[in-house]
Amino acid sequence: MIDRQATASPVGGVTLKAFGQEMPNRLLCLPYAGGSATAYVPWTMPLAQAGISLIAAQLPGRQDQLHLPTHRTFELLVADLADQAQRIGAPYAVFGHSFGATLAFDLARELQRRGTRMPVCLIVSGAPAPHCADDSVSEASSDAELLDHIQSLDGTPPDVIADAELVEIFLRSLKADTSLLSARLGQGGGQLRGVPAFAYGGSVDTTVTMDQLRGWLDYGTGGRIRVFTGDHFFPWGSDQRFWPALLEDLGSSFRRTG
């Protein structure tokens, strides 16, 4: 069971980190490309107020897992993550943003294939549906192109950009993630049985069209589309509708399965 301590796969290196107090339900959050578990730390308190504990996945090659090699394929990453998710000892939902949205979907597919406990819902954010995703940021992009792209999305703190060593570390994990995702794009996937899929988008997010966002409805059993004011990183933005909407979708899903 994963509650108060971070646990890591001895082979793959995915770590699930628990933040805040123990609550009856859990939200497993998966990072955007190049991102880390700590991006979700500010979510600890609003989730706790709704009786939900935060668990965030730390992928290898970043922060305290910097010494670990990244996965060779997207499938290996998903399998490693599924091994860890199976150890969550309470009802849980999964939230994934951008790269993490595709990772969340494939995690749910792998858990379904294994016939094990499924998340109560899938919340995919800032990402096109699997069958209509494109390779706008490919593994062939240069360091400068990747950095320009991320900066254009307001996805890199100024203190990171100002530090050459931090930029190098960030780009290393970003390139590893985009390389894994590039091999996965366009493959689609089957429907999740009994798991609703809620798709969130930003009103001025240039990386995802509304048609691409609506495509997620083909993959869940129920769900809805929500659009919030903001760019690609709208979940960390200023739209005050975000948290009531997120907690509504989580609450209805936990009640449905409880």
Task: Draw up the topology in text.
Layout (H helix, E strand, L loop, with lengths): L6 E2 L6 E5 L5 E6 L13 H5 L3 E7 L15 H12 L6 E6 L1 H16 L7 E4 L17 H10 L5 H4 L2 H21 L12 E6 L7 H5 L8 E6 L13 H16 L1
Helix pairs in contact: 2-3
Write a structural description.
- The chain has 258 residues and is of the alpha/beta class.
- The protein has one domain: Alpha/Beta hydrolase fold, catalytic domain (Rossmann fold, 3-Layer(aba) Sandwich), CATH 3.40.50.
- It contains 8 helices and 8 strands, in the order βββαβαβαβαααβαβα.
- It has helices at residues 44-48, 74-85, 99-114, 143-152, 158-161, 164-184, 210-214, 242-257, and strands at residues 7-8, 15-19, 25-30, 52-58, 92-97, 122-125, 197-202, 223-228.
- An 8-stranded mixed beta sheet has the order 1-2-4-3-5-6-7-8, sandwiched between helices.
- β7 (197-202), α7 and β8 form a beta-alpha-beta unit.
- It is globular.
- Mean pLDDT is 86; it is low at 1-11.
What's this entry about, in short?
This protein is α/β, with parallel strands linked by helices.
Helix content: 25-40%
Secondary structure: number of strands: 8
- Second rung of CATH, namely the architecture: 3-Layer(aba) Sandwich
CATH class: Alpha Beta
CATH topology: the name is: Rossmann fold
User: How many separate domains make up the residues?
Assistant: 1
Biggest β-sheet: strands ordered side by side in the sheet: 1-2-4-3-5-6-7-8
Structural Rg: 17 Å
The total of helices stands at 8
Task: Note the beta-strand portion.
Answer: 15-25%
Classification by helices and strands? alpha/beta
Indicate the overall shape: globular
According to CATH, the homologous superfamily is Alpha/Beta hydrolase fold, catalytic domain
Termini separation (Å)?
Answer: 19 Å
Mean pLDDT: 86
Largest sheet: 8 strands, mixed
Order of helices and strands: EEEHEHEHEHHHEHEH
Low-confidence stretches: 1-11
